[in-house]
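dumping this here so i dont lose it
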C-alpha cells in the first residue's frame, strides 16, 4: 500500500442538447462548416444583448434534481474574465456566487464498496470556440461555431480516492445525462468532458495537499491513465523531498504523461462580477414541480427494476443500465417477448464483443430489437446453436437482415437428427482410439475434445445437447 492517499475532485462539463445556443438563436450543432453558426451575440460584437435560452435552464434543473441537489430558484450569471483567442467577448458568461444548485450527491460502487460522492454545485455557462492548429504550420484558425453553446459544469467535492472511483463516478454521471435526454454525451465531440484536480497527502493526514488540474481528458480510459500517472508523479516528488507546484497540466495520451500548461488560476484571477446584461435566473414553483414530475427513469431506478421485475443478476443489470442506449435496445427486445435473461446474455456477450471489436458507438447500432428477439427464439427452439448465432452476429449488426432468413440462406439450421449425430459421433470415436482409451481410463475431461471433433465433423450444426448425450451413450458401449 502506498504511503500516500489521493484526493481527487472532478469538474465535468456537459453540452446541453438544446436546438440553439445559450444566449442567441444560432444552431447548437456539431460538425458544420467552420464559422457558419455565428451571429453578433456569440461572436462578441459590441452593443449586443444576450437573451437566455429557457430550455437550457430546464435541462440544467433536471440534472440538479437527479443528483438530489438543493436548487436555487434564483441564480445569477457572472462574467468570468480571461483572454484567449477562442473567447471573442474576452469573458465567459458563467455563474459564481449564486449557482443553479448546490450540495448534491451520487453513490458509486467500486470493488464491491459503496461510497457517496458529494457534488458541490452545478452552474450554467456558455462554451468557448475552438482553436485549430494545422500540423506543420506556423498559424492557427479559430472556429466560433461552438462559442455560446450551453454547458453545465458539475463540480464534485474532493471525495474521490482513486482513478477507479473517478471513472465510476464519471460513468454514472454520463449515463444520467444521456438518460435524462439533456445531452448526447459524445466524448469525442467534447459534449462530455472533465478536468481532474489531483493531490496527495500522507495517509492519516486531514490537510489537503497542493493540487494540480489535469486537462485534455477525452475518454474514460484517459481519465484513469492521467490520474494514475499524476498520483505517481506527485508521490515521486514528495519521496525526493520536493514540492508539488499548483498548476494546470495537459495530459498527453500518446506518451501517457502530464506536462505543465500554465500556473493554476484561482477565482480572484478571473475577476468575477455579475453580468449587467442578464437578469437573475428565476425558476418558478410551477416549473420546478412540472420538471420533477416528468423526470425520466434514471439508471439506478432502472437497474432496480431489472433485478426485481425481470430477475436479472445484479452484474447484468448494472452493465445494461450503465449505457442508456443498450438499456433502450434491451427494453424494446423484451417488449417483443424475448426472455430477459437470454436477451441480456446476447447483448452482454455477442453485442458487446462486436462493439469492442468494431468501435461502433452504442448510439449508432443498426441491429434491431426484432433481430435480437428472433435470435433468442431460434436459439431457444433449437433451430441454431449458440455457436452459429455467434458466427452470424456480425451480419446481424448491419441491420438489414433477420436471423431466420440468414440461417436458411446459408444452410445453417441445427441438426437434431439422432441418426446423423450418432453416425458422426461413431466416426469420431473410431478415428481416435487412443483418446477413447484415455477417456475410459479416467480422463473424462477429454469429452470436450470429442465434442469439438463432432462439431467440426458436422460443420458446427449439430445440436450440442444431443452430441453430449450420444457421446456418453456410445463411449460407454465402445
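and the seq i came up w/
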Amino acid at each position: 500500500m502506498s504511503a500516500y492517499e489521493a484526493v481527487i475532485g472532478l469538474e465535468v462539463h456537459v453540452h446541453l442538447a438544446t436546438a440553439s445556443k445559450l444566449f442567441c438563436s444560432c444552431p447548437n450543432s456539431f460538425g458544420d462548416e467552420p464559422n457558419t453558426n455565428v451571429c453578433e451575440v456569440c461572436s462578441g460584437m459590441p452593443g449586443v444583448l444576450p437573451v437566455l435560452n429557457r430550455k437550457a435552464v430546464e435541462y440544467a434543473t433536471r440534472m440538479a434534481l437527479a443528483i438530489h441537489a438543493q436548487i436555487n430558484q434564483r441564480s445569477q450569471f457572472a462574467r468570468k474574465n480571461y483572454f484567449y483567442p477562442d473567447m471573442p467577448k474576452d469573458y465567459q458568461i458563467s455563474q459564481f456566487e449564486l449557482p443553479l444548485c448546490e450540495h448534491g450527491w451520487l453513490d458509486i460502487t467500486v470493488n464491491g464498496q459503496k461510497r457517496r460522492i458529494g457534488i458541490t454545485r452545478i452552474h450554467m455557462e456558455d462554451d468557448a470556440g475552438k482553436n485549430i492548429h494545422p500540423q506543420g504550420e506556423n498559424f492557427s484558425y479559430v472556429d466560433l461555431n461552438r462559442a455560446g453553446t450551453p454547458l453545465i459544469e458539475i463540480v464534485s467535492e474532493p471525495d474521490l480516492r482513486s482513478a477507479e472511483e473517478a471513472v465510476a463516478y464519471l460513468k454514472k454521471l454520463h449515463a444520467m445525462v444521456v438518460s435524462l435526454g439533456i445531452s448526447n454525451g459524445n466524448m469525442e465531440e467534447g459534449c462530455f468532458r472533465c478536468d481532474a484536480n489531483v493531490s496527495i497527502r500522507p495517509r492519516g493526514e486531514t490537510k489537503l495537499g497542493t493540487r494540480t488540474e489535469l486537462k485534455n481528458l477525452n475518454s474514460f480510459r484517459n481519465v484513469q491513465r492521467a490520474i494514475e500517472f499524476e498520483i505517481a508523479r506527485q508521490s515521486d516528488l514528495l519521496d525526493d523531498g520536493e514540492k508539488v507546484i499548483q498548476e494546470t497540466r495537459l495530459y498527453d495520451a500518446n506518451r501517457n504523461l502530464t506536462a505543465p500548461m500554465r500556473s493554476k488560476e484561482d477565482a480572484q484571477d478571473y475577476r468575477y462580477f455579475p453580468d449587467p446584461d442578464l437578469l437573475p435566473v428565476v425558476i418558478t414553483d410551477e416549473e420546478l414541480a412540472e420538471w420533477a414530475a416528468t423526470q425520466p427513469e434514471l439508471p439506478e431506478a432502472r437497474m432496480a427494476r431489472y433485478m426485481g421485475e425481470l430477475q436479472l443478476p445484479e452484474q447484468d443489470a448494472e452493465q445494461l443500465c450503465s449505457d442508456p442506449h443498450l438499456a433502450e435496445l434491451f427494453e424494446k427486445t423484451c417488449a417483443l417477448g424475448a426472455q430477459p435473461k437470454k436477451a441480456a446474455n446476447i447483448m452482454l456477450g455477442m453485442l458487446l464483443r462486436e462493439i469492442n471489436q468494431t468501435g461502433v458507438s452504442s448510439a449508432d447500432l443498426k441491429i434491431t430489437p426484432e433481430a435480437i428477439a428472433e435470435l433468442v427464439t431460434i436459439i431457444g427452439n433449437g433451430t441454431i446453436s449458440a455457436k452459429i448465432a455467434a458466427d452470424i452476429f456480425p451480419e446481424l449488426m448491419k441491420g438489414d437482415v433477420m436471423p431466420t432468413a440468414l440461417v436458411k440462406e446459408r444452410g445453417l439450421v441445427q441438426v437434431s437428427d439422432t441418426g446423423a449425430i450418432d453416425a458422426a459421433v461413431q466416426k469420431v470415436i473410431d478415428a481416435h482410439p487412443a483418446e477413447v482409451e484415455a477417456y475410459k481410463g479416467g480422463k473424462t475431461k477429454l469429452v470436450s475434445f470429442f465434442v469439438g471433433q463432432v462439431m467440426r465433423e458436422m460443420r458446427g450444426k449439430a445440436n450440442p445437447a444431443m452430441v453430449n448425450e450420444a457421446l456418453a451413450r456410445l463411449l460407454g458401449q465402445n
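The chain has 15 helices and 16 strands.
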